[in-house]
Write a structure and sequence with these properties.
Blueprint lengths: L1 H32 L2 H22 L2 H14 L3 H38 L6 H26 L3 H7 L2 H16 L7 H27 L10 H32 L2 H37 L3 H28 L1 H9 L7 H16 L3 H7 L3 H54 L9 H12 L7
Helix pairs in contact: 1-6, 1-7, 1-10, 2-4, 2-5, 2-9, 2-10, 3-4, 3-5, 3-9, 3-10, 4-5, 4-9, 5-6, 5-8, 7-8, 9-15, 10-11, 10-13, 11-13, 11-16, 13-15, 14-15
């Protein structure tokens, strides 16, 4: 199982690496094509769109993986398809509620009163569309993950859209297009996401109807799982994004832009764990269903060790050469983000070291424990952000964010140990690390 996951992880690594590089490439182009104040606004609008999509999904991202992976493993094709229908109808209802509220006045009120930004009707309409597309695209990608198509799921969830957006922006950049505005960027993004959603929805429909078997599932079963996940996701997102929102509410747009580029660059640290999670989620559900907890711990600690090794190398570079990296990626003018980058890099390294602890809680029926941890750490983080932002600015926000990530992941590791009797964090004993590296760099024929 570990060999298969690491093999899938290496495939996912290649696809996700393209996606992360594509995302950084898009941000780098925007840093050169938009004025700095507009770049700061873009980061805020992107954060609001992803938050709105998360509200609309009602916890269906992880729920899709759980029900689809279980049904696929047990060869219950009818149950799988019915679960997908129920979940997509739930997302549709959520999209209707969230976009109606945002477009109907809540969005404009939020942006103008909290972030002190003037927005017109066109921007509000585009952000509403952005919310709807993101809400549907993620469950479609996660459904492919549930049926063990990790590579395609990874490609849909980021790289596909970034590829198209990057091609359009580089064409405009090389063509010396000087009139790029914020609403143009959001329109290009929405168009790319719409194309992806339509194409891959058709692919998913064809693939799921090839799965045989019967079985049944009820809406109450799905909502019973998705409800606590929804609360956890919102709380975790607040911990991750409230720092940007508070910076936007209390600091100048120039500071928001600096903080935003650091947040984007810090994704490189968590990329190894994100890739591992893409491959390991279906395995968690399957191994737990069979009560193979020893094998589950071996998978979790082995993959966490590999992720931490790669993340550690990235953190060393970010801490040693922050100004050089910021200049290289985003151009001159963002060096003030160096301390934010260094502080958050350390916090994210601990997050990677803890492994897939949050996913384990969610996918083993302990989603309420995850919800409680998320609520406690989220509320504490928001209070600390408000206390620190006035005196220490973006550096204070970064410090609180790093501490909240560390606390949250340590609590999750201990909760998994208490609930399941296993550990999820990296294992740095020489023999363990050596065997995991052998799996990565072995020839394909040697991994079987």
């Amino acid at each position: 199982m570990l060999k298969a996951i690491l093999t899938d992880g290496m495939w996912a690594f290649g696809v996700k690496l393209i996606g992360v590089c594509g995302s950084l490439f898009v941000q780098a182009l925007l840093a050169r094509m938009l004025i700095k104040d507009e770049l700061g606004q873009y980061f805020i609008f992107f954060s609001l769109a992803t938050c709105g999509a998360m509200l609309a999904r009602f916890g269906m991202r992880q729920t899709v993986v759980k029900f689809v992976a279980e049904s696929h493993a047990l060869k219950l094709g009818q149950r799988l398809r019915k679960a997908l229908r129920i979940m997509l109808i739930t997302v549709l209802a959520g999209v209707g509620i969230v976009t109606a509220a945002f477009y109907g006045g809540a969005g404009k009120l939020l942006i103008e009163s909290v972030f002190d930004l003037h927005v017109d009707h066109q921007i509000i309409w585009l952000i509403s569309l952005w919310i709807a597309l993101l809400a549907f695209l993620t469950p479609v990608a996660e459904a492919f993950r549930g049926i063990d198509d990790v590579r395609l799921a990874t490609f849909i969830d980021g790289p596909a859209g970034n590829l198209m957006i990057g091609l359009v922006l580089i064409s405009l950049f090389l063509g010396n297009f000087r009139g790029l505005a914020l609403h143009h960027v959001i329109f290009i993004t929405c168009t790319a996401q719409l194309i992806n959603l339509l194409f891959f929805s058709v692919c998913l429909h064809r693939k799921t109807y090839q799965i045989e078997g019967r079985g049944d599932v009820t809406p109450s079963e799905i909502l019973h799982v998705s409800g606590p996940i929804f609360v956890s996701n919102i709380s975790l997102y607040i911990v991750g994004q409230a720092n940007l929102w508070i910076a936007g509410a209390f600091l100048a747009s120039n500071d928001v832009a600096n903080f935003g580029v650091a947040l984007k660059l810090i994704l490189v640290v968590t990329m190894p764990l994100l890739i591992i999670n893409l491959a390991v989620q279906p395995a968690i559900a399957k191994l737990y269903a069979k009560q193979q907890l020893y094998d589950l711990e071996k998978v979790l600690r082995g993959t966490a060790s590999v992720a931490t090794l790669f993340a550690g190398m990235v953190v060393i570079l970010l801490v040693a050469f922050p100004e050089t990296i910021l200049d290289l990626v985003f151009g001159a003018g963002f060096r003030d983000a160096k301390y934010v980058l260094m502080i958050m890099a350390v916090g994210k390294l601990v997050h990677v070291w803890a492994g897939s602890c949050g996913n384990v809680l969610v996918l083993t029926g302990n989603q309420r424990t995850m919800m409680n941890i998320a609520l406690i750490t989220g509320a504490s983080a928001i209070l600390a952000y408000l206390l620190f932002v006035g005196r220490w600015g973006i550096e204070g926000i970064a410090f609180v964010g790093a501490l909240s990530w560390i606390a949250q992941n340590l609590l999750c590791v201990l909760a998994v140990r208490r609930r399941l009797g296993i550990w999820t964090q990296a294992d740095f004993r020489f023999k363990s690390v050596h065997s995991n590296l052998d799996l990565i760099f072995a020839k394909p024929s040697e991994r079987s």
